[in-house]
């Protein structure tokens, strides 16, 4: 992902908005699933995104100490949006959408880290967050595979969930 055409402020605000949106998405989705194991994983992801949010709020404050954070309504840097379009969409499709967003976030943070070649502590944190996003992708991938198995059987048990 090429971020050279964006200002540092736009990139940080995009990262911040993306983390807030992801946290809200996982929190909302956790309230819609009945599978207690999936619910816990989604809450874990929401919590992780909240930690990333804190990092970007701090980074913004360090780079723009005289400005207040004002999030754009839409991300300046194009990243996939996380949303549940319908309650009828199978959970596997929702999880695939989340996987796509996590992969894009990974690529975004790798590119973002290139802005901090002269600040290894920030660069390394961005690389760490990128690797965490890839870990989120893998966690979601496992849940998606499980969901697809049970969706294929067209069965519903209290400990598993077929749709959001």
Quick take:
The protein is 67% helix and 0% strand. It is built from four helices and no strands.
Key structural traits:
164 residues; mainly alpha; 4 helices
Number of discrete helical segments: 4
Number of strands: 0
* Helical coverage, percent range: 55-70%
Distance between the termini: 31 Å
| Broad shape | elongated
Give the integer mean of the pLDDT values.
85
| Low-confidence spans | 157-162
Secondary-structure topology with pairs:
Blueprint: H1 8-32, H2 36-63, H3 91-113, H4 120-153
Helix pairs in contact: 1-2, 2-4, 3-4
Description:
With 164 residues, this protein is an all-alpha fold. 67% of the residues lie in helices and 0% in strands. It has four helices and no strands. Helix 2 (36-63) packs antiparallel against helix 4. Mean pLDDT is 85; it is low at 157-162.
